[in-house]
Amino acid sequence: MTDMLNQEVVATVNVTIDGVELQVPKGTLAIRAAELIGVEIPRFCDHPLLEPVAACRACLIEVEGMPKPQPACAQVVSDGMTIHTQQSSAVARDAQEGVLEFLLLNHPLDCPVCDKGGECPLQNQAMSAGRSESRFEGEKRIFEKPIPISAQILLDRERCVSCARCTRFSEQIAGDPMIELLERGANQQVGIASDEPFNSYFSGNTIQICPVGALTSADYRFRSRPFDLVSTPTACEHCASGCSLRTDSRRGEVTRRLAWEDPQVNEDWNCDKGRFAFRYQAQDRITTPLVREDGTLRPASWPEAIDVAARGLQAAGSATGVLTGGRLSVEDAYGYAKFARGVLGTDHIDFRSRANSEEEAQFLRACVAGTPLTVSYAALESAPFVLLVAFEPEDESPIVYLRLRKAGTRVVSIATRGTKGLAKMGGSLLAVVPGREAQALRDLPADIRQALSQPGAVILVGERIAASVGGPTAVASLAAATGAALAWIPRRAGERGALDAGALSGLLPGGRPLTDARARSEVAAAWGVDADSLPSTPASDVLDAASRRSLKALLVAGVDPADMPAPFVTDAALERAAFIVSLDHHYSEITEFADVVLPVALVTEKSGTFIDWEGRPRPFAQVFKDSLAMSDASVLGMLARAMGATAGAWDGPGIRREITALGTWSGQSAEVPAVEPEVGPTDGFRLASWRELLDAGVMQEGEPHLAATARPVVAVVSSSALSALGSPASVTVTGPLGSVQLPVEAGEVLDNVIFVPMNAPGCSIYTDLGARIGAAVDVTAGGVA
Amino acid sequence: MAELPQAVRGFWVTFRTMFKKVVTEQYPEDAAKFPPKPRFHGRHQLNRWSDGLEKCVGCELCAWACPADAILVEGASNTEEERFSPGERYGRVYQINYTRCIFCGLCIEACPTRALTMTNVFELADNNRADLIFEKKDLLAPMLPGMVAPPHAMVEGSTEQDYYANRIKGPGPVDQGVNP
Ligand code: SF4
Ligand code: SF4
Ligand code: FES
Question: What is the pTM of this model?
């Protein structure tokens, strides 16, 4: 394999372009070779990540020895070839001008009302490579404009140049061939099937790559012009895929977000959630500190609020629990980890605002925290085999899905339900009962074990493994036994960073075990505190401790009780804690309980870093430079000073320096968990569930167009279970708390399994059913009995 | 005359001028007697089609062309229920900041629909800055007889092309600045 790669690199050909001789790798396209000498050939359909089609003919060049001009985007250069582009050939220039004139025949020239105006390749290339006059005098072809091809994507067929970028993206990259070029000649147009809108998770990318304004979004329609936008390089806060984005803002308001090219991570793409879900940021902000007085929150000044919070926390001291949620930047998570240990002296800290277990925590400390970047996107592309465990890439980490699909890697998924996403990756399913992944991992067929022991094989495990007793143990031992590389892919953007920052009990920054004296003294030295003041025994579960009243105070950041499998436990914990300080940017259920609320900055109001699932830093710059909002870490710094502690840096750059100086742990890592799998019968229907990409998540609020492209909310049972139920159109699923009625369809699940979306509109398994993954639920045909 | 002392020569000029025709115009007393020239660059106006629909399509090209950054436009979608201009798009927000405007007229040249023209009105002084930011309501052309205030539908059976090609006939000048 290495030999082959080397050979490919060595094999070159000599070509002459516009009189310049150059050597390029064999197989290079003429359009790319010309770029190497700084010649830009006009193009529309050509895209480096899509297969060439030579559909638009804008790139015609003259090749010596060929009778007619050739499309540079599909012409592979061969040894000794002599090429003339528009720079040195009148034939090529004439051909290109002719094609542009032709492309503009039916174009409506409605640039003033087109969202692409100002950043349009057709506008630009008509100026740079077209003629100034058109000879066309007839009537232009007229289509109704614009027609929605989904609730989000609008199609203006008059503007389309039939380059097929959108259709090729959907088919080749996303695997959702829902749009297609229909008809021929002047009537050629992009279209959808009448019964299936373009509801792809990746549909927004087609807008970005459409070289004209044929595809626009309902969301950004007429919102601004490219020339009055301020662009900032950012990273997506929605999931752990780690997409680079460009955030465009105008007059203190985000107007749109685009995928920003990063070949190592998201290439040129991103998902629709990352692109379109940002309005939540501006809604319902907390603008001033709040202090509770006589049972109600009232606005307070910063000094007063800090003072009240500091006194309350000081009184509770090490009997304080810290919940950080999974959405913080690594700097802020580090701030909490430091505040808990170095200022409060408590180890009661947890970033996991979702189903979790002590076994999972152990697994994360031992196998994930502070590990170097070994399993990367590139590793997925070159892996001979990938095993997915409790992880649905298309819903839970879309760029992982795109990369596995791109590579055509052999994929096997240990999952509770076989999905279209899995089929689109060409993967096969090893169906399990929810919560029983551990047993399946132990009894893995020999051929899969075999495949895992090939060099480069990868196990990708999702955060839902926490719902399986013995699951994390089984994953760790499978990786150890087969030698396969292991990567943990959480859903939220801040989880990996929080883990590396030590925002989990028993763990200090850089993957250092809290129980190790050397680890404690390294960290204490970096923070400038006494090593003996740091807690040295891992604490128990925060919520559990709080609801048993062994904690006196809680410090909470961005946690939604509805995300927890037992929201009532969270509520009870919140009610019982004597003193609650909430750092948040939005009003939430936590702020209802809080004694002090301190407003903090949004991702757009600060700079910082997320760590994606690979362990790769994803820095984001501050969009609104004149914002006065303070990051969580800065606010914690004020609290620390008010409590008479310093403990090193609390500002972003200072924390980054501290993290870099600390580095990662070089000593013995924590013990891997050893938990026996759950056994025993799985009677009745067992609940399988995960969060779909587009659902009722709080960060998708205020986006009606995006929400309308979400998947329909349906329950899935096996076909035999469906007929056993009497093939109803809908079912009622009942859990301990209540029931929901859902349309039902047959799918790839085991006969005693029912899949229900975890947090869809009107259907939350936690708050509506009160059931967690793997729980027995009651399923009856039809409406509520 | 050449032998007369310098001082006397100077006074002679003054004396002679007393009998010449006065060219100084009295402002504001005689303002009405001396209207500005028709092509004088005065306050802007946002014109209407002859049925009252607005010509501005909210394209922001005027704002782009403005060398003084005096114009702010935000576009929005026309809907069937609420239509302000023919076609898809209209100018929802339109502001000209007259503390910045240098009356160069580049915005007028940039406007693709002749929505924006300049009137001859030059009396724009004020005692505060805020009032010198003119909003859309301050800039819109007056309603002429036969016009209906938007929002309303396009003339029955017409398309936006009919408007742009000036095939919609109604009362009044459709694209000339009208002095209020
Ligand atoms: S809609 Fe855009 S991307 Fe699709 S074929 Fe037409 S021009 Fe190309
Ligand atoms: S006045 Fe003219 S140039 Fe300015 S936004 Fe309106 S249509 Fe465009
Ligand atoms: S870019 Fe070559 S044919 Fe379109």
Answer: 0.92
- One domain for residues A101 and A150: no
Tokens of A232: 């900032």
**Shared domain check, A555 and A657:** yes
Nearest by CB to residue B76, choosing from A145, A222, A227, is A222
Strands B44-46 vs A244-250: parallel, antiparallel or unpaired: unpaired
- Which residue from B143, B119, B155 is spatially nearest to B48, judged by alpha carbons? B143
Q: Do B59 and A117 touch (CB under 8 A)?
A: yes
How confident is the model over A328-353, as pLDDT tens digits?
Answer: 999 999 999 999 999 999 999 999 99
Per-residue pLDDT reduced to its tens digit, A130-152: 998 889 988 898 899 899 999 99
- A78: how many CB neighbours lie within 10 A of its CB? 13
Q: How many CB atoms lie within 10 A of CB A172?
A: 15
Question: Pocket around ligand 3: residues whose beta carbon is below 6 Å from it?
Answer: A 43-46, 54-59, 71, 73
Supply B176's token pair: 């000339």
The domain total for chain A is 5
ipTM: 0.84
Q: How far is CA A298 from CA A413, A577, A639, in A?
A: 51, 20, 19
Structural domain contains residue A520? yes
A667 dihedral zone (left: phi>0; alpha: psi -120 to 50; beta): beta
CA distances from A522 to A154, A528, A534 (A): 57, 10, 11
Architecture of domain B36-164: 2-Layer Sandwich (3.30)
To the nearest whole angstrom, how far is the Cα of B149 from the nearest Cα of chain A?
22
Chain B residues touching residue A228 (CB < 8 angstroms)? 60, 63-64
